[in-house]
Amino acid sequence: MLLMLLMGALAPLRAAISCELNAPASDVARLFPESTSFKKVYFSFASRGGAPLLRKVEARLGGQPALYAPLDVPYVLYEVYKGNRKIGYVHGVNQKGQYGVLEVFVSLDLDGRIKAFYLQRIAGPWANKFTSRKFGLQFVGLLLKDFEAYDLLGGKGSGKVAAIANPAPEAVTDFFGLLRAVNKNLILMDEFFYAPEKAKP
Fold first, then answer.
1. Alpha-carbon span 136 to 113, nearest angstrom
2. Torsion angles phi and psi, residue 13, rounded to 5
3. If we measure between CA atoms, which residue out of 90, 99, 66, 80 comes closest to residue 188?
4. Dist CA 105 CA 182 (whole Å)
5. pLDDT digit string (tens) for 16-35?
6. What is the CA 114 to chain-centroid distance, rounded?
7. pTM of the full structure
8. What pLDDT digit, counting tens, does each position of 52-99 carry?
């Protein structure tokens, strides 16, 4: 009973950290085959820009909440290296799905282009359709600008994102949840890492 109480007390602490890889060493190696090492970095709205940055991100998300406890919840970023040279990032976000939380990761090059899509967590009878290699390959090569040309709330638009096929038509909620998760991922990376890098003299 004491053990159960202790586990219950620790649960909020675990939930207080955003999406993390379950097996970072093997996952990063799979998502970045050319990598030789990685470094884990933590960041949050509270430490980078506070409420103004949060409002900016939510506006870019179409008014959707950025995360459940936005200001102080730390995000986890994996900086990926080949030797001493940084070659990209792996970053994940949580998104509400039809049967629970979706944990959605992408690996990105230094220009913000998706190299790989990884769905770490999804529930439902169609889960294997969304975790299939065929579905994930549809995201490879996409940039944030590709998502900006598509209305993720209305499901309308054209271009590369509109061409992504839903492998489970009965799971529309999860399909659009995954699209929104990738878009959220790219917006967060743009605000916290790519834009600041471009602004450096």
1. 14
2. -65, -40
3. 66
4. 8
5. 457 999 999 999 999 999 99
6. 11
7. 0.88
8. 988 898 889 887 655 555 688 889 999 999 999 999 999 999 999 999
